[in-house]
Specification:
Radius of gyration of chain A: 37 Å
Low-confidence stretches of chain B: 1-21
Largest interface: A-B, 30 and 27 residues
Structural class of chain A: alpha+beta
Number of strands of chain B: 8
Structural class of chain B: mainly beta
Helix content of chain B: 10-25%
Distance between the termini of chain A: 16 Å
Number of helices of chain B: 1
Number of helices of chain A: 34
Mean pLDDT of chain A: 84
Shape of chain A: elongated
Distance between the termini of chain B: 33 Å
Largest sheet of chain A: 9 strands, antiparallel
Radius of gyration of chain B: 15 Å
Low-confidence stretches of chain A: none
Mean pLDDT of chain B: 79
Oligomer: heterodimer
Chain lengths: 1044, 148
Amino acid sequence: MLNSIIKLALRQRLAVLTAALILLIIGTWQAMHLPVDVFPDLNRPVVTVMTEARGFAPEETEVQVTLPIEYVLNGLPGLLRLRSSSGAGISIVHAEFDWGTDVFKNRQIVAERLELAKEKLPPNISPIMTPSSSIMGEIMFVALTSPSGEVSPMELRTLAEWTVKPRLLAIPGVSQIVTIGGDLKQYQILVSAEKMQSKGLTVEDLKHSLSEIGLNTSGGFIDIGEKEYLIRTLGRIETIEHIEESYVGTHLGNPVSVKEIAEVKLGAYFKRGNGSINGEPAVVMTIQKQPTAETVSLTATVESELKKVALSLPEGVELKSDLFKQSHFIENAVGNVGEALRDGTIMVAIVLMLFLLNWRTTFITLTAIPLSLVITAIIFNYFGIGVNTMTLGGLAVAIGELVDDAIVDVENVYRRLNENRLLERPRPVLKVIYEASKEIRNSIVFSTFIIVLVFIPLFALSGLEGKLFSPMGEAYIISILASLFVSLTVTPVLCYYLLGRKTNLLKSESDGFFVKFLKKNASKIIEKSLANSKAVLVIVSIVFALTLFSIPYMGRDFLPTFNEGSVTLGLQANPGISLETSNKKGMEVEKALLTIPEVKSTTRRVGRAEMDEHAEGVNWNEIDVDLRKSERSKEEIFAHIRNKIKETWPEVYVNLGQPISHRLDHMLSGVRSQIALKVFGPDIVELRRIGGEIFQRIKDIPGLKDLQVEPLVQIPQLKIFIDKEEVKRARMSAGTMAQDLEALLNGHDVGQMVEGQQIHGVLLRLDEESRSNPEAIENISLKLLPTGDHVKVKDLANVYKGNGPNMINREGLQRRLVVSANSEGADLNELVARIKNTIDEIDWPEGYHMEVGGQFEGQLRSSQQMIWLGLLSFTLVFLVLFFHFNSTVLAIQIMLNIPLALIGSVAAIYLTSRSFSLASLIAFVTLCGIASRNGIMMISHYLHLMIEEKENFGKSMIIRGTLERLVPVLMTALTAVLALTPLLFAKGEPGKEILHPVAVVIVGGLLTSTLLDLIVTPVLFWLFGEKASQKAIKKYQRLKTEEF
Amino acid sequence: MKVLSLCFLMILSFSLSAHEGGHGEVEEGGKFGGIMSPIVEKTEAGKGNKAKFLYKAELVRAASGKLSMYIFDEKMNVMDLKDFSPEVLAKLEVKKKGKFTYVGEFKLKKNGNHFTGELPKIEYKPFNIDFFLKKGKQDLFVGFSNLD
């Protein structure tokens, strides 16, 4: 079939060229319109259920809200893990589903189960699912400020909520906007406990009379005459005065209005968070995208809309959008990899020119690159694959190999045409080109097939690593197959037009000076190697053994660190700190950071916003720092940032990361660090104690930084302990008393105020004077006795200052505490091993256990998978080679290129990072295919010489075969190596972080496998190839006879 | 009996005075998730913040009733307990009708780098625990208030 393709292409030459031109145009257009992102879709299907339980302490939130939700969600089909956080007034449950499950189906199942949970939840508490977003969904920050201060924080927040937010949410692709900072507008009825008592009113009276403070209702329709009328009852409150005049009860026969017992005013919604930019107060809006939305174009659309919105804002308000934007990193990273691709192509062209010294052969070979790339783009477009650093990386790795098939074809056609020209009666050019292409067809198809085969098991990589590297493999395989197709169709046709009809350009001695030089020296080396064949094998075996011996001494990493051009700082103060203090200190840190030359802007969020799925306490400041390009290294800048924070806020714990890396860590283990020691057990206090013990034992292990015990600590609480006996004596129930106190102290929503299109809440609560200290609370009246005496809180309860946990985290229906740490350049595996050894000394109480998570978890899983997948790849390669050559010996000889490649790869890693990452392992598996190709080409050619040219097995045949294959082997290897040099010398550059180790492994491995292949393969063939080759020839001849 | 009653009254009056005067407060957060309190000379108990803070103690109370008490030096390093007496006496008092009343005592024992013991079941909240410990010849005191 493949021969027919070559034949057809040569017959329909013009049609082939026209089709190539059309593909070029369509493919280029489609390539320009492919979606662009920084990484492939890494979203794990997660459904987040958030429940606001205002005023609940973490213990109550856990028992009354989180547990019922967890119980109904547990056991859902495809559910991998349930994680939850129960904080003060907030419960967040993350249901993490298996990769590949449909997120919308998952949401539907969760929604159905939540209906069941609602029955078990306290009244007025309803869980909601947060909008479906992406792991890297936070695409940008927008802030509203008033530099002159003439616009109040409340006006700013109102503008953000009701002017900016609706317009941005209307943009397709925007999933959610989380607003923090400013003052959220609320109408407040602040009751004086004293006045309430003087009017003889109780909590119940207030709750009852104000619960329906003002409503518009419908009375249905009536017909009057011939007309139909809609009956409307207009009772809705529209002004503060309406509230003030509302009736709340009767005293001494007279109606009592709200204003007699309370102050009604416009106030700020109770805050649990705040925001600022560049150290100045601001309303910060975090724009999140939908999982399928394209970041770069969506950011552009949002910016364009923001320009229009800015025009409609009042004077004195500034809308800032020049803050952190994920698109900066994407453009930078994708641009960088694009540059690597371009530079790689230029390198390939130079190599081709150097070897071929002929613009025609160079041109034919080079056409394989654009044609393969545009075919890849068309296939990408068809299957909905986007452009990202990984797909571009796959192309960058493949770029040197895209020309390989064409090189082999052109080189053979060129040589055969040359030989044909020297014949007395030259054969037709078309026939020569066809036969020359057919001659090498087997080896190029087989070697390409093996390259593809090697990569296929990598698609079985699970989890994040699978999601990350599969697109790289897809791009690599598609482009390699496209190049094979081009070499079978366009290359022979171009050979006909550019080489076949211009035979006068061919010289009898076609090798250039460089090739002549190479062949001369190679000939000497091969002769000497064959003369000392056993010594060669011993030396190579020793080098290989040394290589294997050195591997355990290298480090291990999961993924290389990214260089995102921005920093995410987590500043954790001691829980119990007030929002005001935490906010003030956070702004001071921002101002200090702005003195660092590289810091362009800072965006800070403290605590949590309403509807924010991060259940952070007010002690948590998160600062996103946008950096300028700088001569200083990332490490230097990070150290400077750490110092600045230490100077400004010495007692705060700092977690320094980068936005995307930070989110990847979060997705991997639910925590934001490389190492996460998760301790599980029933009692939060005991968990925290064990966490402290772990901390004490591991804090001095070298190489650990950012060591932190999850701050589950005792925070101050004002407690009201109800004495059941006394309550009974007062003819009351403890539950009613608790509810009444909740309404008075925490507040009770009694209605809504509608202002045009805006809706604001109306809250009933005690005024500050009546609730600001234990004594005031003790004097709150709960009941009016017939005698006229009041039953007060102090009569029924102890009011005291105590402590309680700040937060309760759970995972897999168990309480969990995390001790987290990052590595300071140390090998993760080694660090974890040391930690485990140290922790073994702890006396673990019954019912408590520990699991290790974080990047380490992913690394362990992926390394194990890679070992098995690698073995599968090798087995498949062996089987294919065996069936092709019908010889175990020849198949093994070809596969011996793999250890030769390992020598170079390990040496290259040693000279660079000295650490194996997942990217290195994947690169090595890829390399196995590329390295085997050299062996296939060499041994196939030996067999060809013996079969077609009737050469006898011997040293002269091996030397001839090796020298004839020298140029294509060196060219293919050199193009592959040089195409990767832009990635090789780009360690740490944005977008190239994962691709750099890939380049290191492939370049190192290809150099040794190619150079040693020219020595070892001839030696092995000389020592062990005679019998095997005879067997292979017999098989070939038998097949040929059967064919006819 | 008279002697016993006298002792009881002395203990009661001492513990009340210790809490009436207060026992000062430690600024730092605990390292084991518990609550902090200063350790002072027994004779200085009740002087509140005027007493000289010698060490710091962190009390961790598990829901099962298990009590763990860690001792820290000035720099918040966990102290080696080799110089401390093997047992710590703990006295309990509960708040009822606005007043604290002595209800009993128990002991903590040395367990590696901390003291451990079992808290008796208490019906009322809040309650106070006063600990009496020895380091060498030094009699020390640490009190924790408003526990529940």
